[in-house]
Amino acid sequence: MQAEYTSRNKGPWKAIALLILLLLLLRLASYFFPSVLNLRQFELFNPVWYGSNPVQRSLGDLLINAVVFCWIVLFAWSKLHEKDNLAEGLTGKWKWITGIAALLLLVSSTFILASVIRSMVADSKISFDVANFFSLHFFTVAEFVVLACLSLSYYYFTQLLFRLIFPLFARQKIIIWFAIGFTGLLHLTARSGHPGVLFYLPVLVWLLVYTWLISRQGVIFSRIRINIAAILSRIFVFSVSIAVIMLNENRKAEWERRKRMAEKIALQTDPSSERLMNIAITYLDNDFLLDNFHRVYNTKEGKRIRDSIITESYTGYLNKYDTRLYVFDATGRPLYNEDPATGQGHYFLCVASLSFSLKRYKRLWPISIPVQEAHYL
């Protein structure tokens, strides 16, 4: 492997940079030239199951990104874990630049990890309800693999950052917590009004506690010779933190599903719908048609009168249904309708020509089909 060769001959930092560059180029190529691999043919890359943003377009993309990030971090850890002070050799202004950059990376990586975990529940149709076995999907396993990769990557990534931060601020550790809190609050202030702010505040508090635990781990476990206690404590912290985020997002997702179901049932059983329709057509009487029907034969005038009828007579329906107006002449030919053929799911009004007896068409007759697909003629 080229990165291993570079590590032996030119040092670990250049090897890490080379690996990042190669993997980043390959990943960008898969984004800009998707037809080469045609990953969309696999169900794992179907955005129907999960899609958050242009980067995390599907569960498959998220899985690849998590594995790539985990690969880079583990490679870096394998080359640098023996060094307790990664800032060794830095002097002057480079110490401060490196320390500030490490603190910014620490805060941003924590927020990104939390947002990804939250998105895996909020933006996904894949169930995480482990209490209901039959609701689980094959892709649930893939999401747990993503969580494992992200958790492992974040832990070792922060360990590397702390080996830069703690030596640089060894005599002024208060600056570390102040910088983390200030940076996090500054980020949240810039996003004031965003609904995610209340989510990131506990994440910022968690980061401060996590940083304190890492800084004190030598004191806390100084009397325990076996390092397994420290490992178990970190596993416990990560497990509880991820579980809290997922349980909270599961609760919100379940509440939204129940609201949508209730709205759908209320819409289907709304007793006022028929009365609203009767009120809406009250003003479309013979006098109105005698004075205005000739206007529908003109393209511009027809569009204007259709918009006027829909916006003035069917205001109560516009936020509930896809309301359209279809007009036909005496021979049954459509008069500049949006869609020549009436499709399912649309509520439409068929207005007769003046050559017909208008009194015969004064009311509407509903077709006996399911409520959510009712048509009116």
Report what the structure shows.
By secondary structure, this protein is an all-alpha fold. The protein has two domains: 229 residues, no CATH class; 102 residues, no CATH class. Helices cover 62% and strands 3% of the residues. A two-stranded parallel ribbon has the order 1-2. The radius of gyration is 31 Å and the shape is elongated.
Based on CA inertia axes, which overall geometry fits?
elongated
Distance between the termini: 72 Å
Number of strands: 2
CA-based gyration radius: 31 Å
SSE string, helices as H and strands as E = HHHHHHHHHHHHHEE
Number of domains: 2
Furnish the topology, listing elements before pairings.
Blueprint: H1 2-10, H2 12-32, H3 34-37, H4 59-80, H5 93-122, H6 138-168, H7 174-190, H8 197-220, H9 228-268, H10 272-280, H11 286-292, H12 299-313, H13 315-318, E1 323-327, E2 347-351
Parallel strand pairs: 1-2
Name a few traits of the molecule.
13 helices; 62% helix; disordered C terminus; mainly alpha; 377 residues
